[in-house]
Design goal:
Keywords: ATP-binding, Kinase, Nucleotide-binding, Serine/threonine-protein kinase, Transferase. It holds the Pfam family Pkinase. This protein is an alpha+beta fold. The chain folds into two domains: 157 residues, Phosphorylase Kinase, domain 1; 179 residues, Transferase(Phosphotransferase), domain 1 (Orthogonal Bundle), CATH 1.10.510. Helices cover 32% and strands 14% of the residues. The strands form three sheets. The protein has a five-stranded antiparallel β-sheet, with helices on one face. It has a two-stranded antiparallel ribbon with strand order 6-9. The chain has a two-stranded antiparallel sheet with strand order 7-8. Strand 7 and strand 8 form a beta hairpin. It is globular and about 55 Å long. The two termini are 18 Å apart.
């Protein structure tokens, strides 16, 4: 069954080699992958090119100080502990490898970032931020597991558990191509796990800000893991809202699209878009030939087609509750999780 669900996606970056593995849902198949820029390169929805060499000694000193403050410079990790196999993704300043951790034999993803070549201070900060957030959000079964990070040969090396079954975006595309919807049982299983992951992040005062299918990774036995924390934001106990416009436009909340301050319920909106996509096999605001302005109008007016006729009443009810213009009227993540778990139990044995 592994060859039915093979994938080239692991960390939300474009892949060039296939890897084995299967996300075990009865009778499903998927192929293909989807382009995604590297989170350490803040390129939003467009490609960038180039790269420069830094010769500023003050910059290297400042960066070394930042890295030391994240407690990664003192790591005992070494590249000699990893056997690199295939490149599974490339960014402007980074390469991601499928590798084996030799001391344990575990399959891992090794991300090597040429951090001293990144000229833009925000991009460098995003890389350090990614490590901090991976550390803070660790120890949850539905979040990509951070293993280690260290500096070697002027590279920032980040290692994470390898998800060998691709991402949810690829699974949805495969199902769409063959016209086979997810069963309600599988849909609610996936969504309940994601609610648990986002709840864990919010409990650590971390907003993801880029929840979408291509950032949800699939592993064996039906386990899903939320990844790509490069755009996440930590909120101190005194921080109530964020204002920077980040994320993927199709999954942005109305307040974010408008450039207004936003808070935790913006993640709720993105989860609602993902839930709709699990049921309809497409984003609620997707239209052929859509430009950014028209997309923004659709999102801010909450204009989307009804879910397909096979969708359960519960699915339609929860999507409608989550995709509300008024952020204050969206249900809490706690209530969403409880509702999703009840649906998971109700539809657990429903298979088509």
């Amino acid at each position: 069954m592994c060859d039915l669900l093979d994938s080239t996606r692991t960390l939300g970056v474009p892949a060039v080699q296939r890897s084995g593995g299967s996300f075990r849902m009865p009778g499903e198949a998927r192929r293909g992958d989807e382009r995604r820029e590297d989170p350490c390169v803040s390129q939003s929805m467009y490609d960038g090119t180039g790269g420069s060499t830094i010769s500023d000694c003050n910059l290297e000193s400042d960066l070394s100080s930042d890295i030391s403050s994240t407690h990664i410079a003192n790591s005992n990790g070494r590249m000699s502990q990893y056997q690199l196999h295939t490149v599974i993704g490339n960014g402007k300043f980074s390469t991601v490898w499928r590798a084996i951790h030799l001391p344990t034999g575990a399959a891992v993803a090794v991300k090597r970032v040429q951090i001293y070549e990144i000229m833009d201070a925000k991009q460098r900060t995003d890389c350090i931020n990614e490590v901090k957030l991976l550390q803070a959000a660790a120890n949850h079964p539905n979040i990509i597991t951070y293993r280690d990070s260290f500096i070697e040969n002027n590279e920032l090396v980040i290692t994470l558990d390898f998800c060998d079954c691709g991402d949810l975006g690829g699974l949805i595309k495969e199902r769409s191509d063959v016209g086979t919807p997810l069963t309600e049982g599988d849909l609610w299983s996936i969504f309940s796990q994601l609610c648990g992951a986002v709840s864990h992040m919010h409990s650590h005062r971390i907003m993801h800000r880029d929840i979408k299918p291509s950032n949800v990774f699939l592993s064996a036995h039906g386990v899903v893991k939320l990844g790509d924390l490069g755009l996440s934001r930590y909120f101190s106990s005194k921080t109530a809202q964020a204002q920077s416009m980040v994320g993927t436009p199709y999954y942005m909340s109305p307040e974010c699209i408008r450039g207004q301050p936003y808070e935790w319920s913006s993640d709720t909106w993105s989860l609602g878009c993902l839930l709709y996509e699990l049921g309809a096999l497409r984003n609620p605001f997707f239209r052929t030939g859509l430009n950014y302005y028209t997309l923004g109008k659709l999102i801010t007016s909450c204009e989307y087609d009804p879910l397909p006729s096979h969708a359960s009443p519960e699915l339609s009810q929860l999507v409608a509750a989550m995709l509300q213009q008024d952020a204050g009227k969206r249900p809490s993540l706690h209530d969403i999780t409880r509702f999703a778990e009840k649906c998971q139990v109700k539809y657990r044995d429903v298979r088509r």
